[in-house]
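User: What would this chain look like folded?
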Amino acid sequence: MTAEAVAESQTSVFDVAEYILQKRAAAEPDRPAMTAMKLQKLVYYCQAWHLA
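Assistant: Here's the prediction, encoded as structure tokens.
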């Protein structure tokens, strides 16, 4: 696999953040927006889980 193919197949941090925000909005539509710090922690945990 070439370096370009690997780079194209990887999910970006922005994709993960968007996924989290969409899931939360669908599950809890009446709650206020998530703080940036909470979103950052969730994305960080996703990265740690993926590398484990």
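The radius of gyration is 14 Å. If you want, I can go into more detail on any region.
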